[in-house]
Amino acid sequence: MGAAASAVEDQSNLAYPSSGLTHRSLDLALDDLYGTQDFALEVADRLGAIIRVPSESYDDFGKIGEDDRWQTFAVLHTELKRLFPSVYETLDVVNVNTYAQIITWRGTETNLLPLMLTAHMDVVPVDASTSDSWTYPPYSGYFDGTWVWGRGTCDDKVDLLSLLTTVESMIKAGFVPSRTIVLAFGIDEESAGTQGAPYIAQYLEDIYGKNKIAAILDEGAAYETPYGGNVIFANPATAEKGYLDLRVEVSTPGGHSSVPPSHTGIGMLASVIAELEAHPHEPSLKRSDTFFQEIQCAAAFGPELPESIKQLAYDAVEDDNALGNLSQALLEWDPAAIAKLSTTQAVDVISGGVKVNALPENVWALVNHRIAEHSSVSELQDRIISIVGPVAVMYNLTLRAFGKNITTGDKGQLTLTDAFDTALEPAPTTPVRDSEPYGILAGTIVAALQSSPGYDGSQIIVSPSLAIDTKSYWNLTRNIYRYAHVPADAYFNGLHTVNEAIKLDAVIGRIRFYTRFILNWDEAAVAQTVF
Ligand SMILES: [Zn+2]
User: Fold this and answer.
1) Are 447 and 430 in contact (CB under 8 A)?
2) Is-contact 124 150, C-beta < 8 A?
3) Which residues contact 300 (CB under 8 A, 6 or more apart)?
4) What is the mean pLDDT of residues 165-181?
5) 52 CB neighbour count, 10 Å cutoff
6) Residue 203: strand, helix, or coil
7) 426: which of 34, 131, 148, 328 is 20 to 30 A away, CA to CA?
8) Which residues are catalytic?
9) In b/e form, how buried is each residue of 251-273, taking b as 16+ CB within 10 angstroms?
C-alpha cells in the first residue's frame, strides 16, 4: 500500500491518558473543573484582560529598544504574570530578544525530548477607519455571554490564553511532567516574523541541539465539516509551501518627456507583468503531495464530495490520467484549490515615475510567490527568467537575475531579485505514516472531540494537509503540526478583520485538548529516536 493510502488507513486513533491511575484521574479531574461555570467565567475574564493590551504588530516596526511601540509587549508580560501566577512563579521564564518569551516546564525524565507548544503575542493592527464597524470596541475584550470580542481573540491570543490556562491548571492540580514542556511565544508573527520565532528557534537549538524537540504544535486551521454529513475533518498541516517575494526593477535613462522613446521603463515593466500573468503556474497534483493525501481522506470519508471526484481520487492512486483529471476536477469544484495545486503569484506592489514631464528612471514591482510543495526556489527562479528573458531581449535590456547576468542589451537594465532575502524552500514534510508523534496528535484530537460536551459529530477524520502560509522551526524537529483545535464556526467573523470574536465554549474545548495532549505526550515513549 502506497503512502497515499496511509492517511486514510490511520483513522483508528484514539488517545486518552491511561498510564497508571495518575494521568487518567488527573485528566478526569481537570475535565470536571473545565466544565464548571466558574472556570468558564475566569477564562473569559483572562482572555478579556489579554485582549485589552493592544500588542499590535507593524510592518514598519523599528528596532526593539528604539521603536517605542514595542513596549506594549512589556505591558502584556506584566498582565500575563498577574493572570497566571503559578506559571510565572514556578516555571523557568526567559525572554529572548527582549519580548519573545520561552517558558520551560522541566520534566523529571531528561531522556525524553521536550514537547513544544507555540502562540504569538502580537495581533494585526485595527484599521482606524473600521473601528466604528465593530459591534464592541476592538480592544474591549467584552464577553457577551457567548462570545469574547476583540482583536486577537481568534488569532492568536486564544492560544496564548489556552496554553497558559492549561499549564496553570495542571500546576495547581499537582501535575509534574516527566517530559519537559516548552511554551514559546513570538512577537511579530503578523509582520516580518524576524524578531520572535528565529530568536526562539536559535535559543532552543543552542540548548537542546538540532532535531532535539519531540514535536511542535503551531497555529493552524480550525476543524470543520467541509463535506457534510456532520463528519468532522481536522486537518493538521504537515507540509507548507515555499516562499519568494520577487522584485522586478527596470532602469532606463531619464530625460525630458517631449522626446520620448517608444517605451518608457513603465511600459517595459508593464510588459514584464503582463507576461508573468499570461503564464500562470500550471496546477499539478503529485502522489507524493500532502494535498493528494488530503483528497484521499476526503474521498474516503467526505459524504458530499462529488462522486466524480471520489472516483477520480480512487483511480488516481494508480492511473496517471485520472491523476491529471483529478486536479482539473478539483479546480472546477473549488477554484481556491489552485493554492494547493500550484505555485501562486500575485503582483502586489508597483512604483515608478516622479513627474509627468520626466522619463522614469527606476520603476519596480513586487510579486509574491507561494511555492508548490513539489517545487523549489530555484525552479521558480528559472521559470521566471524564462518568461522575463524574451521581454528583456525585445526591449534590448540587460537582464540580471538573482545575481547572474543572463543577457546584455544597451537600452537599460532589467533586474530580478529576492526583494527582502526571505525566500524559503517548501518545508520538509512532517512524517505521518507510522509516526508515533502524529499518532498522538491525531488520537488526542479524536479523544478531545468525542468527549467534549455537546459533541454531535457522526465521525472524526484527521487528515494531513498543506499549509499555504509559511512559518517554521525546521531545525528543531521534523514533527511540526500546524493546527487549531477549534471548530471553524467558533469564529464570529474570521481573522484579521472587524468583529473578531470567539465562542467561549470553543476556548474551553481548546484547553481540554491541550491538557490531554500534554498528558498523552507525557506517557508516550518517544525519546531520542526522533527521526
Ligand atoms: Zn496568527
Assistant:
1) no
2) no
3) 8
4) 97
5) 17
6) helix
7) 328
8) 122, 189
9) bbeeeeeeeeeebbbbbbbbbbb
Q: What is the pLDDT of residues 186-201, one digit of tens each?
A: 999 988 888 999 999 9
| Type of residue found at 487 | P
φ/ψ of residue 175, rounded to 5 = -70, 135
DSSP labels, 319-348? -HHHHHHHHHHHHHH-GGGHHHHS-EEEEE
| Nearest one of 86, 121, 84, 125 to 101, comparing CA atoms | 121
Q: Give residue 137's pLDDT band: very low, low, confident or very high (50, 70, 90).
A: very high
Alpha-carbon dihedral of residues 197, 200, 204, 205, nearest 10 degrees?
50
**CA 110 to each of CA 35, 178, 310, 374, 411: distance values in angstroms, whole numbers, following the listed order:** 34, 8, 47, 38, 66
How far apart are the CA of 195 and the centre of ligand 1, in A?
15
Query: Which residue stretches of 118-222 are H helix?
Result: 157-172, 197-208
The overall average pLDDT reported for the chain is 93
Alpha helices by DSSP H, listed for 395-503, are: 436-450
* Nearest alpha carbon to residue 517 among 7, 12, 17: 17
Helix (H) or strand (E) holding 39: helix 37-51
- Angle (CA) 492-497-502 rounded to 5° is 25
For residue 156, report the distance from its CA to the centre of ligand 1, in Å: 5
CA of 456 to the centre of ligand 1 (A): 28
**155 marked as binding residue:** yes
CB 118 within 8 A of CB 189: no
CA distance 150 to 159: 14
181 vs 526: CA distance, rounded Å? 14
> Does residue 390 contact residue 399 with C-beta atoms inside 8 Å?
no
β-pair type (215-223, 115-120): parallel
Which domains does the chain carry? 3-238+428-522 (3.40.630.10), 242-418 (3.30.70.360)
Give the pLDDT band (50/70/90) at residue 530.
very low
Strands (E), 150-290: 181-186, 215-223, 231-234, 237-240, 242-251
Whole-number percent of the chain with pLDDT over 90: 83
Amino acid occupying residue 478: R
Q: How far is the CA of 249 from the centre of ligand 1 (A)?
A: 32
For ligand 1, the distance from its centroid to the CA atom of residue 123, given in whole angstroms, is: 8
Does 190 count as an annotated binding residue? yes
Section 349-366 average pLDDT: 95
Residue with cell 493554492: 339
Annotated ligand binding at 522? The verdict is: no
Give helix 265-278 / helix 377-394 axis angle, nearest 10°. 130
Please count the CA atoms within 13 angstroms of the CA of 211 that sit on its side-chain side: 8
342 phi and psi angles, rounded to 5 deg: -155, 170
Q: In terms of DSSP bridges, do strands 92-96 and 362-371 run parallel, antiparallel, or are they unpaired?
A: unpaired
Q: Is it the case that residue 453 has pLDDT exceeding 50? A: yes
Is a pLDDT exceeding 90 seen at residue 470?
no
199 Cβ contact list (under 8 Å, min separation 6): 96, 97, 100
